[in-house]
Write a structure and sequence with these properties.
Strand order of the largest sheet: 1-2
CATH class of the largest domain: Mainly Alpha
Strand content: 5-15%
Oligomer: single chain
CATH architecture of the largest domain: Orthogonal Bundle
Radius of gyration: 15 Å
Shape: globular
Distance between the termini: 27 Å
Number of domains: 2
CATH superfamily of the largest domain: lambda repressor-like DNA-binding domains
């Protein structure tokens, strides 16, 4: 069975509009090139997981929502004002052990974060580790 992603670009544009973030803002926040953001918005390409994670954080949504239209969650958000980017986290809503994990996750570069997410997805793919 083929797992196809359709509508990524439409959900990306929708969330950008909701957050009042332009393509230029998204480039500054994520570090991705203007041409790549344009390709994603036009539906000509899909981002790699590491890029999708950056984009999802920047527009206050989840990779799952962008890919499939489901599973929006309270995620960290970015705001852009006068060309300054500030990161606003919802850490106060997390339990102490969740805050510790979040802090450790933040120390990883994008490749490390992608590997952690991949590992968690692998663990969840078996019933042994699910609640």
């Amino acid at each position: 069975m083929k797992n196809e992603i359709t509508g990524f670009n439409l959900r990306l544009i929708e969330k950008m509009q909701e957050q009042n973030i332009t393509k230029a803002d998204l480039c500054r926040i994520t570090g991705l090139t203007t041409s790549m953001i344009s390709y994603y918005c036009a539906g000509k390409r899909l981002p790699a997981l590491s890029a999708a994670i950056k984009i999802a954080k920047a527009i206050n949504t989840t990779v799952e929502y962008l890919a499939h239209g489901t599973s929006t969650a309270n995620v960290p958000s970015y705001s852009v004002a006068e060309n300054k980017i500030s990161y606003s986290s919802k850490k106060s809503q997390l339990k102490p052990d969740e805050q510790s994990l979040d802090s450790l996750f933040d120390l990883l570069n994008q490749d490390g974060q992608a590997r952690v997410i991949s590992y968690i997805e692998d663990l969840l793919s078996t019933s042994k580790y699910k609640r």
